[in-house]
Amino acid sequence: MYALPSPGQGLKTGWHHSGQETDPDRQGAAEARVIERMSSWVRERFPAAVPEHHHAESCLYTNTDDERFILERHGPIVVGSACSGHGFKFAPLIGERLARLALGS
Predict the structure, then answer these.
(1) What would the pLDDT profile of 30-53 be if each residue is shown by its tens digit?
(2) 1, HSE (Cβ side, Cα atoms, 13 Å)
(3) Average pLDDT of the segment spanning 6-15
(4) The dihedral of CA 90, 88, 20, 64: what is its sign?
(5) Any bridge partners for residue 3, and if so which?
(6) Which of 19, 29, 67, 104 can bridge 84 by disulfide, Cβ–Cβ 3.0-4.6 Å?
(7) Contact call for residues 18 and 12 (beta carbons, < 8 A)
């Protein structure tokens, strides 16, 4: 689970791999059990926050089998996929690695 500020709204929380597998061509629905568990988690860790949700949605993202990023060079081609649902947290490091790959170092 994680939380980060959502300006004008409070906290955005997420629970990695908490929902059911879904079809990416269909809008998924947030599950009541996930919402309740996340509200409990907010109550435990952020006592000053109001743990009642005002918006819930499913987030889709790609995953590799081992949840690692794909940051590789194949000849003149650099391949970068910071997937597995947590790539945004590593954006500066991923950008640096991809730049080094592109420069050949």
Answers:
(1) 888 989 999 999 999 998 887 788
(2) 15
(3) 87
(4) negative
(5) 13
(6) 67
(7) no
